[in-house]
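Give me C-alpha cells for this 141-residue protein.
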Amino acid sequence: MLLVEEGMGQNLTPYVAIAVTIVLCLGLGLAIIALNYVLGPKRSNPVKGKGFECGNPQADSPRKRFSVRFYLVAIAFLVFDIEAVFLYPWAVVYRDLLKDPVYGQVILLECIFFIGILALGLWAIWRKKALDWAFDRGEDE
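Here you go.
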C-alpha cells in the first residue's frame, strides 16, 4: 500500500510545479495591479479622456467606410500568412522524411499539391483584381 501512495506522489510532481508557477504569476499580476492602484497618479483632465491615435490628433471620422477590397486583401493576407506557418514544420522534418523511400516522395507530392492550391488561390484573387484596393479612387470621392 505504501508503494502505491509513493508512486502516486511522484506522478504529481510536474503538476505541482505548474500549479506553483500559475500561483506565482497570478500573485505577481495582482500585486502589480494593486500597487498601481495604490501608488499610481489619480489626476484626471479632459485631454486624458479623449481618444488617442498614436499621439496625433484624430485626422478623420472613425465611422468612415472602407472599400470591401481592403477587407479582401486583409483576409487573403491572413490566409497566406497562416498557410506559410504550416510550411515551417514540414521544412524542419522533410530531411528526415527523405530517408524513408515511400514517405519522402509522398510528403513531397503533398507539399507540391498544397503550394499549388495556394498558387491557384492567389491567381484567383489576382484575377478578380482584389489586390488593387489601394488604387480605388471612385469609391472614396
